[in-house]
From TrEMBL:
Keywords: Signal
Domain of life, per lineage: Eukaryota
Protein name: Uncharacterized protein
UniProt xrefs under InterPro entries: Calycin
Length: 764
């Protein structure tokens, strides 16, 4: 059996002797590419040779780990090279063949093979090839001729990677391969923050964020004009904070809605000399704050590297923090707002030396931000210890700038709320009539509220004012909302809206926002008008602290039995009584291809591959030597043209664990089945043509229910249908089933099944 496992590891895809250079190691990482270049083959070959020759003259260098190439062979239509990693430890071999094509183009076949035992290669074999043919459009530096290229096929061996972004940065690993089970030590040995930290200097001026990690509270959609300011308190607050924090960000998409923390965030100094602080909303006791560490800082150079604590989680390219609320985040700060690419790369290199996984960092757009005046953070004042509890409660009553005559009021002093400012491309009379028609349409069937199946009733009507109540679908909670209207130029209408919960509440899962939005949104937003469909622009959306404002939430039914939670509350995960399908028919399930309509992003399923995804299964004649029962074939394509194909071939296998309950375990076929991860059929109806699949029980609490992890095992959520063409009603039916099971639906992303052409049934 051990011989079988080793044979399975020799997984270079369809490696042909005369197209690959060969390797001294039987088990090794590799990559093959097929590329079309908009240049003649002679021009392509000359450019490759010029790049390799340019290493010694300084005309060119390889940014991927600072590797060095040397030419080994040259033929009329063939080139062979060796490449040594920057640390001189590893030498790999690569080979290209060239074929002239019509219109002065060239077809390139390339293959790179590691020369030592290796599985994961962090894109090294792919980058060895790519760096010799990529052009300026891909961020590369040509020497003689710059030409456009199209990668028609990129096929790394199983465990190897093919991330183009990896090719333009220096790797932090001391080796370019790991065994399947190997992980970097996290946090890295000797990891330290800054020494002799000067807090007064650090907080003296505004910091502009140039790159940051996406976290639960920092979505990429807000990576525009982000800055941070700090002010030292006169003395430690009663809740233990030393510094007031002011954060500002804007939506990337127009109209660039502003997200400003105001005076709601505070920091506590934990170790002043080492730059260790802890940050939280000011109303929380500082004992609940999360780490905020200055890892490196140079006032003269104008930069700082900030992390949400030590990077404790192993990642493909180093170590990272979590992505939740505490113990999460990575930031590159600069004093100047205008991006200095050399400085950003310098700080990235420092982060890499510290052992951070740089792939988590995303750019922040600091252009066209206008003149953002330096603002001082509002002081947080607590008057006395006897008044402290009252002040904490007051901090929770956080409806932003609620004006008595613009909000309906609430019987609860602490409650969730939301205010909106909207411009509608219709007169105010038309907008008001449409709102009233929707509310009246609930009783006639002309309209319904998809957000938790709520029901509205009209309370007041004025010349430029409307007031409503909305009751949740389960009849438990009633909220109040109020709109005012002002006619604007060109026949438009300015709308001010406010919704307030009537009971104690903090998190509301977007309910107050959706209370308002569902009465003015149009078909462009996925809503159903009754009398008039008009375009709208939300110029401001301001939920109270802890409340949400996710438009996607407004078009789906919530799964919580209440629409609010206290700050500390969490759903029980996995949900009580969570079960998979009963009386599962495996033969029926695997009889035909399944098309994926929605799926969760995981480490091995990036959103960038959410196109034309399908899965097929075939029962093995008998259990394999490693314990598998079913062969699995997965297919996906890149969303971005030219829609590069990712096809698992025959590399994935499944083991049946509980046949009657639809519980399987899946892994690469070369791994012992004991290392496979759960793959559960949660619900399945062959007649209706759907299946709901999960990577095991949803054990992690999330804002809208429970979810699986997002790593390799114990991860994933899928909606399968037999028909490739999307049936929205069926998809929504399966989403409702998932919600009833307690899943957090916000993890699901659409898969584009249009324009996939005729994909022939493949037999595994």
């Amino acid at each position: 059996m051990s011989r079988k496992i080793i044979a399975a590891l020799a997984f270079a895809p369809a490696v042909v002797a005369n197209s690959c250079p060969g390797s001294a190691s039987f088990v090794h990482a590799s990559c093959q590419v097929s590329v079309t270049a908009d240049a003649t083959c002679l021009e392509v070959m000359s450019e490759m040779e010029a790049r390799v020759a340019g290493i010694s003259t300084g005309a060119w260098h390889d940014p991927h780990n600072n590797g060095t190439y040397s030419q080994q062979e040259q033929g009329a239509a063939e080139l062979a090279f060796q490449r040594t990693t920057g640390n001189k430890k590893y030498t790999d071999k690569l080979k290209f063949t060239f074929e002239d094509a019509p219109a002065g183009t060239c077809k390139i076949q390339g293959c790179s093979e590691s020369q030592v035992f290796s599985v994961a290669d962090f894109s090294t074999n792919y980058c060895k090839l790519r760096m010799l043919y990529c052009g300026s459009h891909e961020g590369c530096k040509p020497v003689q001729k710059d030409f456009a290229i199209t990668e028609t096929s990129v096929s790394p061996s199983l465990g190897a990677s093919k991330n183009p972004a990896d090719c333009l940065k220096t790797m932090t690993m001391s080796q370019h391969f790991l065994s399947v089970q190997a992980q970097p030590q996290c946090p890295p040995s000797g990891f330290e923050t800054v020494k002799d930290y000067d807090l007064d200097s650090f907080i003296s001026k505004r910091w502009y964020i140039q790159q940051q990690m996406e976290t639960k509270y920092l979505p990429k959609s807000q990576n525009r004009c982000v800055y941070a300011e700090y002010k030292l308190e006169h003395k430690k607050t009663l809740l233990g904070y030393d510094v007031a924090v002011h954060n500002h960000a804007e939506e990337v998409a127009p109209p660039h809605t502003v997200h400003d923390s105001g005076s709601k965030i505070c920091a506590k100094v934990v170790d002043k000399a080492r730059g260790k602080l802890e940050v939280a909303p000011c109303f929380l006791p500082s004992a609940l704050a999360g780490p905020y560490w200055v890892v490196d800082y140079d006032e003269g150079a104008g930069y700082a590297l900030i992390s949400g604590g030590a990077p404790t989680l192993p990642a493909e390219e180093g170590c990272k923090t979590g992505s939740g609320t505490n113990d999460s985040g990575l930031w590159i700060f600069t004093r100047e707002q205008k991006r200095d690419e050399a400085l950003v790369q310098k700080v990235r290199a420092i982060a890499a030396q510290k052992g951070f996984d740089l792939s988590v960092l995303n750019d922040v757009d600091q252009s066209d931000c206008g003149s953002i005046a330096q603002s001082r953070v509002a002081e947080v004042v607590f008057v006395s210890s006897c008044a402290m509890s009252r002040k904490i409660i007051a901090a929770l009553a956080f409806a932003p700038a609620v004006v008595a005559n613009s909000c309906p009021g609430s019987a609860s002093f602490v409650h969730a709320s939301c205010q909106v400012s909207v411009t509608a491309d219709a007169t105010c009379l038309e907008v008001m009539s449409e709102m009233e028609a929707r509310v009246a349409g609930i009783s006639t069937g002309a309209w319904h509220d998809p957000h938790n199946n709520g029901t509205y009733s009209q309370q007041e009507q004025g010349a430029a004012e409307l007031a409503f109540q909305r009751t949740t679908g389960n009849k438990k909670y009633t909220d109040k909302l109020k709109f005012t209207f002002e006619d604007a130029p060109a026949g438009t209408c300015k709308i001010q809206g406010c919704s307030e919960s009537q009971v104690f509440s903090v998190a509301d899962f977007s309910t107050n926002y959706c209370n308002l939005r569902m009465l003015y949104c149009g078909s462009h937003e996925g809503c159903k008008p009754v009398q008039k469909d008009f375009a709208i622009t939300e110029t401001s959306v301001s939920p109270s602290l802890g409340a949400s404002k996710n438009p996607a939430d407004c078009l789906k039914t919530m799964t919580m039995s209440q629409h609010f939670l206290s700050v500390q509350a969490q759903p029980q995960c996995p949900p009580s009584g969570f079960e998979t399908v009963k009386d599962f028919d495996l033969d029926s399930f695997i009889s035909k291809r399944w098309y994926i309509q929605q799926q969760m992003e995981t480490k091995y399923l990036p959103k960038s591959q959410n196109r034309c995804v399908y899965a097929e299964y075939k029962l093995e004649p008998k259990k394999t030597l490693l314990g598998y029962d079913v062969a699995v074939h997965n297919h996906a394509e890149e969303v971005a043209p030219p829609h590069t194909v990712h096809d698992s071939g025959s590399k994935i296998c499944a083991k049946v664990v509980d046949k009657a309950r639809g519980k399987l375990e899946v892994a690469p076929c070369f791994l012992p089945s004991a290392l496979a991860g759960p793959y559960w059929v949660v619900d399945y109806d062959e007649g209706a043509g759907y299946a709901l699949i999960s990577g095991g029980a949803p054990t992690l609490p999330a804002e809208e229910g429970c979810k699986t992890g997002s790593g390799t095992n114990d991860s994933g959520l899928w909606i399968f249908t037999r028909e490739q063409k999307r049936d929205e009603a069926l998809v929504q039916k399966v989403r409702a089933i998932a919600a009833q099971k307690g899943f957090d639906l916000s993890v699901l992303n659409d898969v584009d099944q249009s324009d996939c052409g005729s994909i022939a049934q493949v037999v595994v």
